[in-house]
Amino acid sequence: MEFYNDLKLGVLGGGQLGRMLIQAAMNYNVSIFVLDPDVNAPCKEFSSEFHHGSLNNFDTVYNFGKKVDVLTIEIENVNTDALEKLESEGVKVYPQASVIRLIQDKGLQKEFYKERGIPTAEFFLLDNKEELHDFESFFPAVQKLRKEGYDGRGVFKIKSKGDIEGGFNKPSVLEKLIDFEKEISVIVARNASGEVRTYPTVELDFHPEKNLVEYLFSPAQLSEKLEQEAQELAAKVAKEIDIIGLLAVEMFVTKDGGILVNEIAPRTHNSGHHSIEANITSQFEQHLRSVLNLPLGATDIKTNAVMVNLLGEPGHDGAAKYVGLDEVLATDGVGLHLYGKKFTRPFRKMGHITVVDKDMEEAKRKARFVKNKLKVIS
Amino acid sequence: MEFYNDLKLGVLGGGQLGRMLIQAAMNYNVSIFVLDPDVNAPCKEFSSEFHHGSLNNFDTVYNFGKKVDVLTIEIENVNTDALEKLESEGVKVYPQASVIRLIQDKGLQKEFYKERGIPTAEFFLLDNKEELHDFESFFPAVQKLRKEGYDGRGVFKIKSKGDIEGGFNKPSVLEKLIDFEKEISVIVARNASGEVRTYPTVELDFHPEKNLVEYLFSPAQLSEKLEQEAQELAAKVAKEIDIIGLLAVEMFVTKDGGILVNEIAPRTHNSGHHSIEANITSQFEQHLRSVLNLPLGATDIKTNAVMVNLLGEPGHDGAAKYVGLDEVLATDGVGLHLYGKKFTRPFRKMGHITVVDKDMEEAKRKARFVKNKLKVIS
User: Which residues are registered as beta bridge partners of B323?
Assistant: First the structure.
């Protein structure tokens, strides 16, 4: 590849994932074009061309795609018809339209797992809330909207029939509630040459209410056997789905020592943020390498890490202020990542912090300190 | 500090050092304003405001400085009169005008070392070439232009009187040629609160002709005693010179086991590039922390590293092409940094590569492979 100075990579979505992709792409002389519906998107100032428009509008996405050599995403809620037309006209769309279409619909996703022998929680597909009554013996369960769930939205826990009233009256997946031991994630990269590389497994600790990652630990505390199973399962999903690009595979380790695939995302992912500081190749550089069909980078761990999401404080809505930053920055091993968002709102992802330390317990202690100290208010 | 979303940091110079500073500043929500005489400067696309103009023109620098909260540099050849006026009007200029003024003149620099008891090679100050004849018994020596030497320019080796004819006919420093064991560098950060942190010492391998860093090894292979001496000496220079910001201190380890200060640079430096991948806090983030008077970050090594500069191939002048990149990227541990320069010319700094590996010998082997394989041609 000799064209480095001219290559245009289009990104659908201009949020923090796009912003961190730009940081990586600067090292490759790749021009990043961004399309986002928010005129103040975090990527705006740093993209070679920023286009303001809807990711769901056929013409907007199609016209944007015609300007670039390779098109990728940082959010999966995009117009796949436009992507298919672009593909048919020779634009390289990675991940492919078919992959995004499958992942946009949690129902299709679950059926895909079943068909391909990928272990996942037992499930049923529902069209409306009424049908929930047919599954009372199946509870406790989790109802997930088939479409447009994102960042913890579109998920509802049903412990018993008393909860049915609060359920979604829309096409959804009803999944057996898994009483898991831990939640883990493996990021897989795959390029057009078929090369596949996985990241060492991480462990996720979710916010009890908001279904957002609160702490991430890298590496996960797993037996060698489970670690290998998780790696193999994640790679299998990526190959079966035939993705080119990154795939984040979130899994449950069940109490009886099995592994089930929970959800997948066809892009850089919150569960890979630590890789910027803690792995040989960051997930953002790896994404770039995979969609440009470059050799994939090593994923080995350089150091233990704990990642903490920095969410907008409940009760605060408006221009963002950061409280406690000085104490946090005075803590050795803290890597700050603010996302350039002018306004905060409750639980909005405003940034993240990666704490690295040779000693994992020390890293955890520091991460808890960071979480208690650093607040985003208005 | 709560103002993160509004802070404007001005940078005099928009080359690769500014570009890597922007990559770091994105994580702090700091807006970077850049002034550079090249309309295609590597920072252009990524700065919040790019101003095109001379760094040596009083009005240009002054007017630019009035737009920002804090002003810093990525090259020391700038108009210091304008910086002094800005300081007197309350703009925070870090490093300070007085520090830059001192470092701009290698003669003043050497006299400063002498005055403060900082060990350095014996020297004399000359006004013209004619005077070289008075120092025949002092040869072998190195003649360095007092002003405007940069990136290996302005340095001339005089082994014997036969070389005098090729010397500079300008104010210069004539320095005893040091028959050194190795060249090392320590980067020191100091903030306005007086906090000081040094990076572990690195070892430099220079291009025999061009006086540009060819390989950098981190950490340096030094005895514990020498490592400590190098750290202390570098910190002493930073304190004596009273700098706020980063100071790169290049030193010689002499054959009899002494350390002499060779040259200093009041900014991020080629000898700190490896810190992006290999140390807890990169020199670019550290520079930001120091000029914004934030707590300084830990400098510990995460992994061994070898850095290789990617220089324009001799005989090539024009639009840059990169040959051998695929083989290089297929090597585990390679971190690529291209600088976004459209045109190459012989020995122009076009990028760098940092190879990380647990095993230093393996890192060196890979770095040699990279150096032989990767070429920038036109």
Answer: B375
